[in-house]
Amino acid sequence: MIKNIVIEESISKDLLVVDEYEFEDIAAEFINCEEYMNLSLESHHGTQRLKHSFKVAKGTYIIAKSLGLDYKSATRAAFLHDFFFNDNFPEDIKSIKRSKEHPKQALLNSQKYFNINEKEADAILNHMYPLTPTRPKTLEGTTLSLVDKGVAIQEYILSLGTRKTKNTINQLNKKLIKSR
């Protein structure tokens, strides 16, 4: 019985309560910007760029808050890290070059539509490190960079599964049509 009390006390001290309303308050600024919401029309890692940005922002919020960082700046930067549009780049630009160049465009768009502080600007500009030459200068920027990579890997793996499922369904449909 005493052992359980110690475990429960230890656990409760380390638990982070994520305030959904606080996250939504941070998100509201971006949701209310029509240009930002147009990211829902852009594809990214097999999903909408808007959905990707929200996933990265949520993960960054949770981790930055749990580490006692400036989670508001980290979360704002996460919302804005991919605030660019495919038509910002020539069609023939290769994927790797776009990966290196899009942080600059995301920062320009962010500064055009929102008030960005230095910490947020650094995080947006350097979230693609090591593809970009400089790493984030802050733990908030490093958190964003790592969460972005984790979410991108997850989305890529899920998109492979979706493609495989679609291919399987197409093959089954072809067999059904042939068997008629």
Offer a concise description of the structure.
With 180 residues, this protein is mainly α. It has a single domain (17-155), classed as Hypothetical protein af1432 (Orthogonal Bundle). The chain has helices at 2-14, 20-31, 34-37, 49-66, 71-80, 95-113, 118-125, 139-179, and strands spanning 43-44, 47-48.
**Distance, first to last CA:** 68 Å
Q: Specify the CATH class.
A: Mainly Alpha
Q: What's the main sheet like?
A: 2 strands, antiparallel
Under CATH, the homologous superfamily reads: Hypothetical protein af1432
Number of domains: 1
Q: Assign the structural class, choosing from mainly alpha, mainly beta, alpha/beta, alpha+beta, or little secondary structure.
A: mainly alpha
Helix percent reads 55-70%
CATH topology: Hypothetical protein af1432
Sequence-ordered SSE layout with sheet pairings:
Elements: H1 2-14, H2 20-31, H3 34-37, E1 43-44, E2 47-48, H4 49-66, H5 71-80, H6 95-113, H7 118-125, H8 139-179
Antiparallel strand pairs: 1-2
Give descriptors for this structure.
180 residues; mainly alpha; Hypothetical protein af1432; 8 helices; 2 strands; 2% strand; disordered N terminus
Could you characterize the architecture of this molecule?
The chain has 180 residues and is an all-alpha fold. 69% of the residues lie in helices and 2% in strands. It is built from eight helices and two strands; from the N terminus they run αααββααααα. The chain has helices at residues 2-14, 20-31, 34-37, 49-66, 71-80, 95-113, 118-125, 139-179, and strands at 43-44, 47-48. The protein has a two-stranded antiparallel ribbon with strand order 1-2. The longest helix has 41 residues, at 139-179. The protein is globular, with a radius of gyration of 20 Å. The relative contact order is 0.12.
